[in-house]
Request: fold
Amino acid sequence: MNREYSTQMEAARKGIITEEMKTVAKKEQMPEEELMALVAEGKVVICANINHKCLDPQGIGSMLKTKINVNLGVSRDCKDYDEEMKKVMEAVSMGAHAIMDLSSHGDTSPFRRKLTSECPAMVGTVPVYDSVIHYQRDLSTLKARDFIDVIRLHAEDGVDFVTLHCGITRKTIEQIKKHKRKMNIVSRGGSMVFAWMSMTGEENPFYEYYDEILDICREYDVTVSLGDACRPGCLADASDVCQIEELVRLGELTSRAWEKDVQVLVEGPGHMPLDQIEANMKLQQTICKGAPFYVLGPLVTDIAPGYDHITAAIGGAIAAASGAAFLCYVTPAEHLALPNLDDVKQGIIASKIAAHAADIAKGVRGARELDDRMSDARRTFDWEAQWKCAIDPDTARRIREERKPEHDDSCSMCGKFCAIRSMNKSLSGEHIDIL
Ligand code: SF4
Reply:
């Protein structure tokens, strides 16, 4: 590599404003020096693997616009690369800032490389999923070295961030047994690491060889996304000893990564009662010293299967308004099935609404501009301008077209009783005809 720095964090610490920082600063309407200082501190990450050549860089941090991630990937039930790539590009055009490739079938490398050569969004993976598939061997037969080699493969393929479940150790096995959680471990990767430790009697390789892993991440500028294996999988398990104990370890691992200039995201809950979300966000920010928080929900109730994009959006909005920086989308198919294209769309729209609502509450630069433009367009019945401001213009336009009123200066909800119409006419001294 012939640049003067390995990672965006190292560049920032050396006072270098990279091309990626310039792009992000422009998008966030933020002075470049201010952004550089946040990257240096670890409060903003720019996930940008040196081998992801078509990347359109994004910054993730609580003072920036909230970003959203979409999970996709080939599986035994959906193994058509082109079909999955179509979903990826549609997700990006709908506003996904990151795509996590959770492929779990066949040779995952071609799809991963296709992603990092064609997809402009950040690309993330969970290497432990790929370990069993890559070696085509039983989990218990894999060695610590095998897991590390898969991380290197993903780094070489251009992956921008990797979820690593480094925060659970052999002590966690005892804790999970002792505390008798209702849902035990619901993290797929976390359960694999737990199972491997249980079967082999060895320590978590992602914890034990963390320094070696950091060296790989430094070489390719891969951001470590510290996975939350013990994230609560139901309201009853929220904020329990297992979750908080892992969070404390993630705080220590964050500092160790920063010592090597490796950028860090920290993953979080999960299922969580609404009244616990804000406190959890503050706790994470304190323990992990402001490292961007990437939340998987939080889902605020357990009883809405089919509507978990809504339960997650409610929790996501509160989480992001309280400091989370990155929301993982949840679709209506959560807990039920592999999402289809419509589920993906519903999940993205719900996450975008949550992220946007939080950005307004946080006072993120420029966040309310479209809302104010929408209000002007509503007051003046400029329907085309309304579609331009809408998060989902196609749905908004379709609903109006299907149920059009007699006149353009109202909608069929109130017709001539339209308050906006009456007020416009009143204030301009016109006669108001309601009958
Ligand atoms: S008719 Fe009612 S709902 Fe429709 S634009 Fe007017 S005030 Fe709003």
About this structure: The mean pLDDT is 95. The pocket of iron/sulfur cluster is lined by residues 410-411, 413-414, 418-420 (CB under 6 Å).
